[in-house]
């Protein structure tokens, strides 16, 4: 079963063809990062304009690289939400037009389900499974008792982990997106400043990063006011330690409580070296299998949308021509 995946929820225009939800045949990503960099973040109007310019090229390139024609496909999967509404609509309209023109069924996919199913492209997902989703807009622990079955057991009450990374990076004058730069500084550091960890109530699987973000930003500003220079490596390392310790500790506790067979990390922040190392070490000790996709599949791409779409399509779900961009879409089960 060959699925064409299309993703335009934020600032990457992406198309990919995936076989049986696990084998990448082609995977094309046109990033707009360069255009948003000088604004220090994603500008929705600019994102939409780029998607319009790129979408047809990217879909054609995905077919070309696969050496396939639309007749070789079984369905088109597209990100329905959450994301920027104007950006989502470009992908959805392209998917509708492509599906209609080629007589193919359509299936709408939740962006975060896509991030989770990026793992299916690397190894078989085994249930019950715990997914730590850490991205630009989400920080969640999702329990999956079976394929297509999602239970949200914890989420951030304020900033997402990626958002905190990007804001701290801004204060350090690092380019957008800041996550990878903070990661690099932290890994090069031999010392770390001490910042608070937000554990919240006993037993809670929720997260909070705004207090940490403010503590780091205030530390930098206070030092500047006193005319002192902060070592950016020490600051980055302190911030990263705090994020990584909370994420690792809560993920382990949830994995134990729900007796999961497999733990996976997903989303852009799962590309973080400090987090990957910490989770790998912790789960090796726990004797629970832990996986994280290669970096290219952690950040936004369409292969993950095709993989999730494959599962949802196989479960019998179909979208139609009234599909609309849904910026606040909730992660619902399809099984
Ligand atoms: P969402 O998936 O929640 O809709 P998004 O699609 O914008 O949001 P992703 O593309 O999944 O988010 O991830 C982008 C985020 O990942 C950015 O905040 C970026 O800084 C962060 N990120 C990428 N690489 C790293 C890294 N090595 N360390 C920390 N953060 C990183
Ligand atoms: Mg992105
Ligand atoms: Fe994403």
From TrEMBL:
Residues given in the record as Fe cation binding sites: 111, 115, 300
Catalytic activity annotation: L-threonylcarbamoyladenylate + adenosine(37) in tRNA = N(6)-L-threonylcarbamoyladenosine(37) in tRNA + AMP + H(+)
Enzyme class: transferase
Subcellular location: Cytoplasm
Cofactor(s) in the UniProt record: Fe(2+)
Enzyme Commission number(s) of this protein: 2.3.1.234
SUPFAM superfamilies (UniProt xref): Actin-like ATPase domain
Gene Ontology CC terms: cytoplasm
GO BP annotations listed: tRNA threonylcarbamoyladenosine modification
Pfam families named in the record: TsaD
Region (Disordered): 316-335
Keyword Manganese part of the UniProt annotation: no
Residues annotated for substrate binding in this entry: 133-137, 166, 179, 183, 272
GO MF assignments: iron ion binding; tRNA N(6)-L-threonylcarbamoyladenine synthase activity
Cofactor binding description: Binds 1 Fe(2+) ion per subunit.
Entry keyword set: Acyltransferase, Cytoplasm, Iron, Metal-binding, Transferase, tRNA processing
InterPro entries cross-referenced by the UniProt entry: ATPase_NBD, Gcp-like_dom, KAE1/TsaD, TsaD
Domain called Gcp-like: residue spans: 23-306
The family this protein is said to belong to: Belongs to the KAE1 / TsaD family.
Xref: PANTHER family: TRNA N6-ADENOSINE THREONYLCARBAMOYLTRANSFERASE (PTHR11735), TRNA N6-ADENOSINE THREONYLCARBAMOYLTRANSFERASE, MITOCHONDRIAL (PTHR11735:SF6)
Purpose of the protein: Required for the formation of a threonylcarbamoyl group on adenosine at position 37 (t(6)A37) in tRNAs that read codons beginning with adenine. Is involved in the transfer of the threonylcarbamoyl moiety of threonylcarbamoyl-AMP (TC-AMP) to the N6 group of A37, together with TsaE and TsaB. TsaD likely plays a direct catalytic role in this reaction.
Entries under HAMAP family matching the protein: TsaD
Name of the featured protein: tRNA N6-adenosine threonylcarbamoyltransferase
The organism of origin for this protein: Psychrobacillus psychrotolerans
């Amino acid at each position: 079963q060959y699925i064409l995946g299309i993703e335009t929820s934020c600032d990457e225009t992406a198309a990919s063809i995936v076989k049986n939800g696990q084998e990448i045949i082609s995977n094309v990503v046109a990033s707009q990062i360069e255009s948003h960099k000088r604004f220090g973040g994603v500008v929705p109007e600019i994102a939409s304009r780029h998607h319009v310019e790129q979408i047809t090229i990217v879909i054609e390139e995905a077919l070309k690289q696969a050496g396939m024609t639309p007749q070789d496909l079984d369905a088109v999967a597209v990100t329905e939400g959450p994301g920027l509404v104007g950006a989502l609509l470009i992908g959805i309209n392209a998917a509708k037009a492509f599906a209609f023109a080629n007589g193919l069924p359509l299936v709408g996919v939740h962006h975060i389900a896509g991030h989770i199913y990026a793992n299916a492209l690397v190894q078989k997902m085994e249930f019950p499974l715990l997914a730590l989703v850490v991205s630009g807009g989400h920080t969640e622990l999702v329990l999956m008792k079976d394929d297509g079955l999602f239970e949200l057991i914890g989420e951030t009450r304020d900033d997402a982990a990626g958002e905190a990374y990007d804001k701290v990076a801004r204060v350090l004058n690092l380019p957008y997106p800041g996550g990878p730069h903070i990661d690099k500084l932290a890994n090069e550091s031999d010392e770390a400043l001490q910042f608070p960890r937000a554990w919240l109530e006993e037993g809670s699987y929720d997260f909070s990063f705004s207090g940490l973000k403010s503590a780091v930003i205030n530390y930098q500003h206070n030092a500047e006011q006193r005319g002192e220079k902060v070592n950016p490596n020490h600051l980055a390392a302190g911030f990263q330690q705090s994020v990584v310790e909370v994420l690792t500790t809560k993920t382990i506790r949830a994995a134990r409580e729900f007796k999961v067979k497999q733990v996976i990390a997903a989303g852009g922040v799962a590309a973080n070296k400090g987090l990957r190392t910490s989770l790998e070490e912790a789960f090796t000790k726990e004797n629970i299998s832990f996986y994280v996709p290669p970096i290219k599949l952690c950040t936004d791409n369409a292969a993950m949308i095709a993989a999730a779409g494959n599962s949802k399509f196989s479960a019998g779900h179909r979208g139609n021509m009234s599909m609309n961009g849904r910026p606040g879409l909730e992660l619902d089960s399809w099984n």
